[in-house]
């Protein structure tokens, strides 16, 4: 399965800790992340991550293109709802695309944990028939 990982600056440490905690599950899948988030995950969790550009430099758009081409099975986007971002339209576009193309999306830690456990159980195998 292809898993997209995005985290706002205030949530990057949380994303690192999440990836450390669920390394055993995540290492079985293809991971894609915006640049800085991907680098930080690789540094602490020893996971292989395909890195796009940094989110504000077009990485969110690159991930969005993968969603549009039905090449993403799940997205974990730990967003900071308290701090507006200058590139908010690009980031909100990822959420809109996940809704449009029926891609499971987590925007907080609680939902991310549910999705990664579902991924481990095989609950997302229905995505295979879409490819």
Plain-language structure description:
There is one protein chain. This protein is an alpha/beta fold and 131 residues long. It has a single domain, classed as Methylglyoxal synthase-like domain (Rossmann fold), CATH 3.40.50. 47% of the residues lie in helices and 15% in strands. The protein is built from 6 helices and 5 strands, in the order βααβαβαβαβα. It has helices spanning 12-21, 23-26, 35-45, 59-68, 88-100, 109-121, and strands spanning 2-7, 30-33, 49-51, 74-78, 105-106. Strands 3-2-1-4-5 form a 5-stranded parallel β-sheet, with helices on both faces. Helix 1 packs across helix 3 (35-45) and helix 4 packs parallel to helix 5 (88-100). The relative contact order is 0.20. The mean pLDDT is 91.
């Amino acid at each position: 399965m292809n898993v997209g990982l995005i985290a706002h600056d205030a949530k990057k440490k949380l994303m690192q800790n999440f990836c450390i905690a669920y390394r055993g599950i995540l290492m079985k899948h293809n991971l894609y992340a915006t640049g800085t988030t991907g680098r930080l995950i690789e540094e602490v969790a020893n996971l292989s991550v395909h890195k796009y550009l940094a989110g504000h430099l077009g990485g969110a758009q690159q991930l969005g293109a993968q969603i549009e081409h039905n090449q993403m099975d799940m997205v974990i986007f730990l967003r900071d709802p308290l701090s507006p971002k200058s590139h908010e339209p690009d980031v909100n576009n990822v959420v809109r695309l996940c809704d449009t193309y029926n891609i499971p999306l987590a925007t907080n830690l609680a939902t991310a944990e549910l999705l990664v456990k579902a991924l481990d159980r095989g609950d997302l195998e229905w995505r295979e028939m879409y490819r």
